Amino acid sequence: MTIYENNEIWFVTGAQLLYGGETVKIVDSHSQAIVNGLNESGRLPMNVVYKGTANSAAEVAEVFAKANVDPRCVGVIAWMHTFSPAKMWIHGLKSFQKPLLHLHTQFNREIPWADIDMDYMNLNQSAHGDREFGHIVSRLRINRKVVVGFWQEESTAAQVASWIRVCAAWADQQNLKVVRFGDNMNNVAVTDGDKVEAEKVLGYHVDYYPIGDLAAVQADVTDAQIADLIAQYEDQYDLAPNAQKDGADRNQVVEAAREELAIRQFLADKGAFAFTTNFDALHGMNQLPGLASQRLMAEGYGFGAEGDWKTAALVRLFKVMTKGLKNGSSFLEDYVLDFPGDGAILQAHMLEVCPTIASKKPRLEVHPLGIGGKADPARLVFTAHPGTGVAATIIDLGARFRMIVNKVQVLEPKAPLPKLPVASAFWKPEPNLSVGAASWILAGGTHHTAFSYDISVDQIADYADIADIELVVIDESTTTRQIKRDLTLNDVAYMLKGALK
Ligand code: MN
Question: Which runs of E-coded beta strand occur in 363-490?
């Protein structure tokens, strides 16, 4: 994943020539200082590049046209140092197709009470210049992030940084290919949807391949490749006795490695960074490729089980958004309820939970799988570490996509789970099980989610703004009555939205 290294954010400063060329030169030097300051803050995951001042409608149109076509540019930050009459931004903004952040900052932190004069006032006009700019962006109904703060403050850089992560993930989704090995699980509603609309609205492309195509790739996997990969397993995990060399089920580890190597090859050939499997479509395969799914997720691939391509793309989104962060993210599924106290939910899946969320070294085990009719699959078994995070989903309502996000608290399991042969996470949905789960169900949320410890609700909101899709937030302040009102108002808003554009 090189998106953070190979791409950049552009910084454009609005000004005008009313105050003379000398003023523009100062604006220019201040802008460069701010960009340097942000880059040197050590907080930004991607470089910001200063693109100069825009002093006329023609200059605004030119910089946005360049931003649209430059594949390195994944978003633009705009700042109005002086008053920049906003009619000159109309054409450029109307044509702009990438994420926009409006930074409401000022070169100096404080008012220089003893020295302030009208020259100073005319140069440092962000307070009203940024409002003029904000007016036209609102009038054009363009979604954008607004960050208010002094540019040298850590909290300002942190807000810009979290938005840049969303921009990177959004850009990745525009080039993402999701491979489906087999179709969606028959009769399941929530994991299905409109792939054409997803490509139009969310950007990614979804392709189907018969599982036999993957089975055929296994024929090219060599024993030496398998031996190398198993050496990695032995290095990274504790192996259960039956999975160890000369163990009774060692061959299932060998076959798991063969499947992993085949999937890696297949995805590389297709240029795909997300995939789905289906336990019901495994012709020519030895076992459900659970270990492969776990390990590929850990490397940044998106994954969805039972053909759930929307969640596969969302897990990839989370992986790109959290690149380099340490707390982990995963595909998960709501499995079993625990009612005492605030209530909680045991999250797990048949096999496929990402080991980046593990509390300690995962254990590689081989057990039978009750469904699918294949041989016993290898899998990593662990429990997730405690912490706060978000669980999110995107559902297809027919006429639109809805993103639902629930803040969750991952808890220590109340007791060991000696008989559970899969990885799990035990979490309390905010504000509690009663309201959290009721809200999620009322919103029509999936049983599959993308989960991360390192993503904030604000970042999910930024993503929903960029994609221009509906957002439903379930957090500490949520009540069931408020969620029902939100859902009703959203229905009305989306009905009217066409008329407002
Ligand atoms: Mn499932």
Answer: 363-366, 378-381, 387-396, 401-411, 424-429, 448-452, 470-474
Q: In this predicted structure, what is the pLDDT of residue 501?
A: 63
59 CA from centroid of ligand 1 (Å): 51
CA of 448 to the centre of ligand 1 (A): 6
3-174 architecture in CATH?
A: 3-Layer(aba) Sandwich (3.40)
pLDDT at 16: 85
In this predicted model, what pLDDT tens digit does every residue of 21-75 receive, in sequence order? Answer: 888 899 999 999 999 999 999 999 999 999 999 999 999 999 999 999 999 999 9
For helices 480-500 and 433-442, angle between their N-to-C axes, nearest 10 degrees:
30
Answer yes or no: are the C-beta atoms of 53 and 153 closer than 8 Å. Answer: no
Query: How many angstroms separate the alpha carbon of residue 1 from the centre of ligand 1?
Result: 27
Ligand 1 centroid distance, CA of 290 (Å): 12
Query: How many angstroms separate the alpha carbon of residue 350 from the centre of ligand 1?
Result: 7
Sign of CA dihedral 222, 227, 233, 235: negative
Parallel/antiparallel/unpaired status of strands 387-396 and 47-54: unpaired
Q: How far apart are CA 345 and CA 488, in angstroms?
A: 27
Ligand 1 centre from 306 Cα, in Å? 6
CA 349 – ligand 1 centroid, Å: 6
Cα dist from 251 to 96, 152, 287, 292, 395, whole Å: 55, 58, 11, 15, 39
Task: Give the Cα-Cα-Cα angle 153, 155, 159 (nearest 5 degrees).
Answer: 125
- Whole-number Å distance, alpha carbon 315 to ligand 1 midpoint, is 14
Percentage above 90 pLDDT, the chain: 94
Selection from 237, 229, 253, 244 nearest residue 362 by Cα: 237
Q: What is the mean pLDDT of the chain?
A: 96
The alpha carbon of 208 and the centre of ligand 1 are apart by a number of angstroms equal to 19
Placement of tokens 């100062």 in the chain: 26
Question: What pLDDT, on a 0 to 100 scale, did the predictor assign at position 340?
Answer: 97
Q: Angle 463-464-467 (CA atoms, 0-180°, nearest 5)?
A: 85
What is the CA(305)–ligand 1 centre distance, in A? 5
Tell how far the Cα of 104 is from the centroid of ligand 1, in angstroms: 44
Distance of CA 219 to the CA centre of its chain: 35
Ligand 1 centre distance from Cα of residue 391 (Å):
15
Q: How far is the CA of 395 from the centre of ligand 1 (A)?
A: 15
Q: What's the whole-number mean pLDDT along residues 333-343?
A: 97
Domain ranges of the chain: 3-174, 177-500
What is the amino acid identity at position 276?
T
State both tokens at 236: 């990274």
Q: Is the peptide bond before 431 cis (omega within 30 degrees of 0)?
A: yes
